Amino acid sequence: MNYVFIQKNRIFFLAIVLLLLLILFFLPSFSSWNNSTVKNTSSSAINLLNYQHPPIPQVDKTAVKPAISTPYYILVDVDTNKILLSNNPNSRIYPASVTKLATALTALNIYPLDEVITVKQEYNEGKVMELKANEKITIRSLVNALLIYSANDAAFNLATHNSDGISGFVSEMNKLAQNNGLKNTHFTNVDGLHHPDHYSTPYDLAQLGRSALKLETIRDTVKKTNLTVTDVDGYYIHTLTTTNELLGIVPEIEGLKTGWTPEADGCFVGLINFKGHYLISVVAVSQDRFGDTQKIIDWTKKYVYYQKYQP
C-alpha cells in the first residue's frame, strides 16, 4: 500500500515538473507574439498601407472654408490621398526648411543610419546646431537635428558626405521628388535657403510628407519635442528643441516640419491625428502658420467624418 502511494506521488510530482517545463517553454513565444502584435498594431496606425480598404474620409456638405491668413493651403488624408480642403494647392511657393524632409529622405536612402561622418568645416548660415570641424557624428544624429531643430549645418554635412558632393546630393533629392509624384517641385539646395529656382506647391509638400511617413525613423523623430545628441566620443553635446510650436501643446499634432525665410514667409507641414486617422496639412506663405494650422484642425473636427469602405 505504501508502495502504491509512493508511486502515485512520484507520478504526480513528475506531471507537475513536466507541466512547469511546458509553461516555461511556451511562455517566451507567447510573450514575443503578444509584443510583436502590439508593436505592429501601433506602427500600422501611421503606415496605413496595411489597410486593404482604408476608411473613406468625407466632408460635410455644410462645410465652409476656414478664415485663415494665407491663400495657400491643403489638407490631405494620408491613407487615401483624398483632398479634403484646399486653396491654390498647385500654386508655386517657396518651401523654406520644409525642404529638409526631402534632405532627410535622401540621406536615409543613401546612408546607413549608424554611419559616422567627420565634419569637414563649420557652417554658420541660418539656424545651426554648431557642429565643429573634425567632429565625428552619426547620420542618425544629423537626421534628428535636421527634423527636430532644422539645423542647416546638419543638412550641409549630410550633403558634403556624399561622394558626388552637394550637387550630387541635390540631384538625388530631385530624383526622389519625381519618383514620389512631386511634379511641380525643384530643389537647388539642401536647407531651403532662398533661391528663385527652389520651389514647390502645397500639394507637392503634402505628398512629400506622405512619403516621409513611410519611414519609421522619420515618424519617430518628428514626434520628439527635444533631444540631446553627441559626437561619437560624447565630447560635443547638442541640445535640440523642436521648431514645431504645436507639438506637445495641440494633442492632434504629431509632427512634421516647419519652414521660414523672408521670401517664403511661414510654412508648416503638419501631421494631424484625427480620431485615429492621419491627415497632412500644409500652409505656406503664412504670417501665422501655427494659428492657421489650428484653424484647419478646428475645421476638421467640425466637418470631417469617416465611412467604412463599401465595394
TrEMBL record:
Active site: S97 (acyl-ester intermediate), K100 (proton acceptor), S150
Top-rank taxon: Bacteria
Keyword terms: Cell shape, Cell wall biogenesis/degradation, Hydrolase, Peptidoglycan synthesis, Signal
Molecular function as annotated in GO: serine-type D-Ala-D-Ala carboxypeptidase activity
UniProt-listed InterPro entries: Beta-lactam/transpept-like (IPR012338), Peptidase_S11 (IPR018044), Peptidase_S11_N (IPR001967)
Binding of substrate, residues: K257
GO term, biological process aspect, one: cell wall organization
Peptidase S11 D-alanyl-D-alanine carboxypeptidase A N-terminal domain sequence ranges: 61-283
Family matches, as Pfam families: Peptidase_S11 (PF00768)
Similarity comment text for this entry: Belongs to the peptidase S11 family.
Name of the protein this chain belongs to: Peptidase S11 D-alanyl-D-alanine carboxypeptidase A N-terminal domain-containing protein
